[in-house]
Design a protein that fits this description.
Blueprint (H helix, E strand, L loop, with lengths): L1 H37 L1 E17 L2 E11 L5 E9 L13 E6 L7 E3 L16
Antiparallel strand pairs: 1-2, 1-4, 2-3, 4-5
Length: 128
């Protein structure tokens, strides 16, 4: 009987800890989907990159320091955390400009629109 109480207690504690860790990540992902659908398009230059120590489906969550620029010329800095798709890892460096969507009600909330990222390329094929 005592063993059962211990196992139930440990299970509840583990579930609570996991909930506190993953609930903010899930809420952030849901908010990101909403911003991608309803947000205002803009451009952002990556000024900083930082590790968060979090991975989701073997993809790292990265902390981005971004300088957001709207079409009307408004410009401001934000810090943003988002999953970095593995296919984009080589293209995402400091100084790169990426497309973002900006929350209309809270302009400090942005989401990088990975589906709209177009890699820079050399206009001339290198000669042998």
């Amino acid at each position: 009987m005592f063993g059962l109480i211990i196992s139930v207690t440990v299970t509840v504690i583990v579930l609570l800890v996991m909930g506190f860790i993953f609930l903010p990540v899930v809420k952030n992902m849901q908010a990101g989907k909403r911003i991608l659908q309803t947000g205002v398009p803009a451009q952002a230059m990556i000024e900083q990159l930082g590790e968060t120590g979090i991975t989701v489906n073997n993809q790292p969550m990265v902390e981005f320091g971004l300088r957001v620029r709207h079409a009307d010329g408004r410009e401001y800095g934000v810090t943003h955390r988002q999953i970095l798709p593995r296919l984009m890892m080589g293209m995402v460096t400091i100084g790169v400009v990426v497309p973002v969507k900006v929350d209309v009600a809270q302009p400090e909330k942005v989401v990088i629109d990975w589906s709209a990222v177009r890699p820079a390329h050399s206009p001339v094929w290198p000669k042998d």
